[in-house]
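Usage

Read records sequentially. Each one opens with the input sequence:
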Amino acid sequence: MTGGARASANPVPLPQSAVARPPGHRDARGRVPDWEVLYFQPLGQSTHHRSPSRLKTPALLAWSHRCSAGFTLRGEYSTPSGKPVLHFLHGNGYCGRTYWPMLQILQTDFDIVISDMQGHGDTDHGGRFHGWNRTAELALEAWRAQSDCFGTVAQFAVGHSFGGVITALMLAQAPAQFRRAVLLDPVLFTPLMIGAMALSDVVGLYQRNTLARKARERRRHWPDRAAAYANLHERGMFKGWTVEALQAYVDYALKDRAEGGVELKCRPSREAEIFGSFPRRLWTSLAKVRTPVNVEYGAQTYPFVASAVQRWRSINPLIGAEQVPGGHCFMQQDPPAAARRIKAFLLE
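and closes with the structure output:
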């Protein structure tokens, strides 16, 4: 694993609440924790690769949770400080640290928890993709297993794209878990689209859609990170990304190969599985959300997003929406602006 998989030579002292306990340790409520701190280090100081990026690198702790689906979810979080805590979920094919240019700004006002979903980042591939709805259940399960270390502070949720939809499903499953949420260009499929997807799925065609096909054909490895950066710069989904955002992707969404070079942490086949599937009972779930939500969507995003967001607003008075400059990854094109809007809504 890269970008945080080995211990630092100069580890940051952990607060008493964050230190991993020996087996059998019980917390203040008499419960045996089912998660543990695996490792921690100042970010960007992996023994595999020293990042050339200019991002600030405060210490994060790493967490793991052996989930009920039989694989291990992983992520990172900032040392609990008493600030409100923000739970973040990434888009398909990325990992949470890809968004570090935005998250590092938010860390001024929030403690941050980064969760990497099945087959992304350092989380296990976990066999077959367990589906959107089950992914939301597992993300919520992992969050509940670790959130006690933050005490009684306010809990907020943010997610992008696939992670935005998963966050919405979490809100539906646990109405009292988060105080507020911001969804960044969530890929909310309209009812008409879902009907077509379901019909195509019955006859085995939906898994062959354009996005899934392109994901399967995606280049997977490069000679080194510099070559990966040069190859991806201003191409496809990375068009318009800041230098820091693309560098974060290259630093943390890639891993070293045993035979040399680097490769994607998220297998193209997993990305394709997600693109070739869809959430079940999506609109029933969206109607159940009882958490104030602000949805931000890019002016140049997928055509269906704006209409789906407006439909959600029409059936749920707790949903707000804002069109912002940029495309589907607008938060990677202008991280400071995205961070300002998120802070303004969550803390208003």
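Summary fields computed downstream for this record:
- The chain has twelve helices and twelve strands.
- The longest strand covers residues 35-42.
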